[in-house]
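explain this:
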Amino acid sequence: MNRSSVHNIRQVLLFRGVAFGIVGLGTLALFSDIDEITRMALFIGSLVVLISFWLMVQPGYLAFETAQGKILISTDKEDKSEFFLIMPANELAGYEIEKSHAGLRRKLFLYRKTPKGFMKSKAIPMSLFTAHQTLQMCAQLDAMVAANGFGHLKL
């Protein structure tokens, strides 16, 4: 199996830059020459927009890598700690991408073949993956699932 990697660091940095810009504009309004009510409304409005969008999207870093017969996944945080998944590629039985919040929030679930049946992974947030990155990752996962003989399986 060739080494392959897909990650979303650019999107994470861009999202955080835009978030910083939104809060910066709201803060800048506090020091402008407009009336106090408008200044506070702009500042609070910028925070509400940022918090609402952040909660809908739940942005985060995700690295998906295949190397030496293994699937390696890491995220920047999961329940206040980093999340790593290392799984032998020959145990991958399937996967699904769950979409919510009008498609803004996406989560990946991997299904693993174990002696007791199939095991579903924890949710892996992938909201900031582009369509191209998602297609790259899905192509790799589809190839592994087919190679493992689970291409026909519906989980």
